[in-house]
Design goal:
The chain is α/β, with parallel strands linked by helices. It has two domains: 32-282, Type I PLP-dependent aspartate aminotransferase-like (Major domain) (Aspartate Aminotransferase, domain 2, 3-Layer(aba) Sandwich), CATH 3.40.640.10; 285-421, Alpha-Beta Complex (Aspartate Aminotransferase, domain 1). It is 45% helix and 12% strand. The chain has helices at residues 4-19, 32-38, 60-76, 93-104, 131-134, 151-161, 179-189, 201-205, 242-246, 251-263, 269-282, 285-307, 326-331, 334-340, 347-356, 384-388, 393-409, 414-423; strands spanning 21-22, 49-50, 53-54, 84-87, 110-112, 136-137, 165-168, 192-196, 218-222, 233-238, 311-312, 321-325, 359-360, 362-364, 378-382. The protein has a seven-stranded mixed sheet with strand order 4-10-9-8-7-5-6, with helices on both faces. Helix 4 crosses helix 10 (251-263), helix 6 (151-161) runs parallel beside helix 7 (179-189) and helix 12 packs parallel to helix 17 (393-409). The protein is globular. 52% of the residues are buried. Residues 334-342 have low confidence and may be disordered. Bound molecules: pyridoxal-5'-phosphate. The site of pyridoxal-5'-phosphate has 15 residues, from helix 4.
């Protein structure tokens, strides 16, 4: 690059990504092809509108690109065009979620998602999000004992509040969602079922997570996270949605109109190209192996952490993601108490200590957290990124041991972390 200042930062970031153990469940390492598509000349093109109906000239190849990307998106999830519409223009996950509410829920009506501090996303109606200002948020929670979804309670709240849309799909939930139960609740109260599969879309594409496409009216995903693509959003709308058809709503048109011109201007054609790349990658047999390994790795990491005495929220994982209650786990670890003279450490402290050793996680609230969101009790971890590097169960056991040594024994494991990373270099 001519711009050395930025080039040096890019190089520093490549080195950081190569030399650290990335356990952030919403991150991944996209392929070189995804990066090439993102950095392509499609970045230069304005293409407001949709294929064959643009507000700018010169879009013959963008049209082909968007049509191909839509076809590939449907294929990656085994869908037919006559059943599902797909919009590949949302700039990211948050605008995609907003577009769905804009399309389907009149302003001021009720939306219902999982409360943020239980694992929901900001855009599912958290009070600081615009979604709770434009609509009335009536959130559901997790069962206090099991720390899992409580479908009877969700039904009770839905009957009481009569939301127009119910969101299933979360940011920090380690278990599998029962979409059939959500469908029944939605049918009973006349709400749309919206699935936000941003976190587990790669697992659905890989066949290791139940498909929501049998049940939902509308499904969105980010193309990053387990899907391993570019930062972007994709919305699938069910042409056979009974709720939409009964209300006389053309769900595909409504979503398209909400994305453009409702919320966005020119689509990012380079992002669309990169979505196209990743949807083809996700349809390959190797991706099934990848998805399977993500879950196997997460289950191995979870089991090992439990062996070291860590308490896992909801008892463990069925997905790519693990929530560890570090405050109570380290509280019971006598070695830590002896070394710190205090009772347990917070998620923020745990995350800092791990980062000093090259292990990257994020602090996170746990259900019914007694601590504050900026200094919560938990840390969130996931295996999509390490699995992309080629790590398997053996490495997960080592990673769990390194985490335990840092958090429970205050050991410096930075050399072991660097050595492990060096065995699994990135392509960049
Ligand atoms: C479940 C879920 N939905 C939506 C989003 C929003 O995606 P983005 O950060 O691309 O706006 C996230 C991101 O963390 C998420 O976890």
């Amino acid at each position: 690059m001519k711009d050395k200042e930025i080039e040096n930062l890019i190089k520093a970031e490549i080195k950081r990504q190569n030399e650290t153990i990335n356990l952030i469940p919403s991150e991944n390492f996209a392929s070189l092809d995804v990066h090439k598509a993102l950095g392509s000349v499609f970045n230069n093109k304005y293409c407001e509108g949709y294929p064959k109906a643009r507000y700018y000239g010169g879009n013959e190849f963008v049209d082909e690109l968007e049509i191909l990307t839509k076809e590939r998106s449907l294929k990656a999830f085994g869908l037919k065009e006559e059943d599902w519409g797909v919009n590949v223009q949302p700039y990211s996950g948050s605008p995609a979620n907003l577009a769905i509410y804009v399309a389907l829920v009149p302003l001021g009506e009720k939306i219902m998602g999982l409360q943020l501090d239980m694992g929901g996303h900001l855009t599912h109606g958290h009070k600081v999000s615009f979604t709770a200002k434009a609509w009335v948020s009536t959130p559901y929670t997790l069962n206090k004992e099991t720390e899992e979804l409580d479908y009877d309670d969700i039904r009770r709240l839905a009957v009481e509040n009569k939301p127009k849309i119910i969101v299933a799909g979360y940011t920090a939930y380690p278990k599998i969602i029962d979409f059939e139960k959500f469908r029944k609740i939605c049918d009973e109260v006349g709400a749309y079922l919206m699935v936000d599969m941003s976190h587990f879309a790669g697992l659905v594409a890989g066949g290791v997570y139940p498909t929501p496409f049998k049940y939902a009216d509308v499904i969105m995903t980010t193309a990053h996270k387990t899907l391993r693509g570019p930062r972007a959003g994709v919305i699938f709308s069910n042409r056979k949605s009974e709720i939409a058809n009964r209300a006389g709503v053309d769900i595909v048109k409504a979503i398209d109109k909400a994305v453009f011109p409702g919320l966005q201007g020119g689509p990012h054609a380079n992002q669309i190209a990169a979505i196209g790349v990743v949807m083809e990658e996700a349809a390959r047999p190797e991706f099934k192996e990848y998805a399977k390994q993500i879950v196997l790795n997460a289950k191995t990491l979870a089991a090992e952490l439990k062996n070291f005495g860590f308490r896992l929220v909801a008892g463990g994982t069925e997905t790519h993601l693990i929530l560890v209650d570090v405050a109570s786990s380290t509280h019971s670890a006598s070695s830590l108490q002896a070394s710190s003279g205090r009772e347990g450490i917070s998620g923020a402290e745990a995350s800092d200590q791990l980062e000093k050793n090259g292990i990257i996680v994020n602090k996170n609230t746990i259900p019914y957290d007694a601590r504050k969101p900026m200094d919560p009790s938990g840390i969130r971890m996931g295996t999509p990124a390490l699995t992309t590097r080629g790590m398997k169960e053996g490495e997960m056991k080592l990673v769990a041991k390194l985490i335990a040594e840092v958090l429970l024994e205050k050991k410096d494991v930075s050399t072991e972390v660097r050595n492990l990373c060096a065995k699994f270099p990135l392509d960049y």
